[in-house]
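Please decode residue identities from the backbone states below.
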């Protein structure tokens, strides 16, 4: 049997950072009271967003499916507990309102980050996601000897995120169609608009519930017991395994906090990232001045 070949990654991270980025990296690298190093992966605001999403999504799923399956034991029980189908419909609309507000807030945060702070986040798709997916498949069948190394979010998490965005958009649009059928049929044909909207709404709901239960919840929470979206924390060991590029960036950015000239260019290479050193440089005309050199395994207290 041929020995799996070792795949060598090119430079995987190269970006300019400002003082605010270095200061944020320092704040995210923490040490617990018993000396365990960890990373603040999600802020309090992000965790609250996720809790609102969980609660509103759960209520929408229960009340929506109960209305569709009112003649089943579970559907009838939910409707009885809520006081009937009319009350269930009102609760469904309230949950939809909170999900809509949370979605608008999420969009506002993205717009503020992109156009005010010039930060586009790490959820945007990139060509590297395709190459990571291919390398992971090769690794799983034994064609290469190493898994791809991931940044803040891997290609699976990005796919889940954008599927959720598309799903919420479809659910919101078709939900509004059903809330205001009379107004909608004034401008669109009544014979097919409402039935098509109702069918799309139902099957998109079923798809999203199945995806959350069979993929997201198991793969993200149960399989690896990753509770960072609830407590905000990941240990250094977890970061090395799941998000080594993000950890390397935080180590390098925090090490450059004493630098006096900004912006600073950070370059982290993918070759043997757990062993290699990364170099932080200042761009100054045509010359590069090495201002700090920090091993990514080292401690940044």
């Amino acid at each position: 049997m041929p020995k799996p070949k070792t795949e060598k990654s090119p430079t995987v991270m190269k970006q300019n950072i400002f003082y605010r980025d270095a200061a944020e990296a320092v704040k995210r690298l923490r040490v617990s009271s018993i000396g365990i190093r960890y990373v603040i992966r999600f802020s309090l605001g992000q965790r609250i967003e996720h809790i609102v999403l969980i609660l509103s999504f759960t209520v929408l799923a229960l009340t929506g499916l109960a209305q569709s399956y009112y003649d089943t034991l579970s559907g009838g029980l939910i409707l009885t507990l809520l006081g009937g189908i009319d009350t269930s419909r009102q609760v469904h609309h309230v949950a939809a309102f909170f999900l809509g507000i949370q979605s608008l807030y999420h969009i506002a945060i993205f717009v503020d980050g992109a156009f005010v702070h010039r930060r586009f986040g790490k959820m945007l798709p990139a060509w590297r996601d395709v190459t990571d997916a291919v390398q992971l498949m090769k690794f799983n069948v034994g064609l290469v000897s190493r898994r791809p190394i991931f940044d803040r979010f891997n290609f699976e998490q990005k796919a889940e995120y954008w599927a959720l965005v598309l799903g919420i958009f479809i659910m919101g649009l078709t939900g509004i169609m059903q809330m205001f059928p009379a107004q909608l049929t004034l401008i669109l044909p009544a014979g097919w608009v409402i039935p098509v909207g109702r069918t799309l709404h139902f099957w998109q709901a079923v798809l999203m519930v199945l995806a959350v239960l069979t993929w997201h919840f198991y793969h993200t929470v149960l399989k690896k017991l990753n509770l960072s979206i609830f407590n905000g924390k990941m240990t250094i060991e977890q970061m090395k395994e799941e998000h080594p590029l993000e950890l390397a960036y935080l180590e390098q950015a925090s090490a450059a906090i004493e630098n006096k000239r900004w912006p600073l260019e950070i370059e982290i290479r993918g070759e043997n990232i757990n062993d290699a050193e990364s170099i932080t440089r200042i761009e100054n005309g045509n010359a590069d001045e090495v201002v700090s050199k920090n091993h990514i395994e080292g401690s940044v207290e």
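Observation: Strands lie at 11-17, 29-31, 37-40, 233-235, 264-269, 277-284, 287-295.
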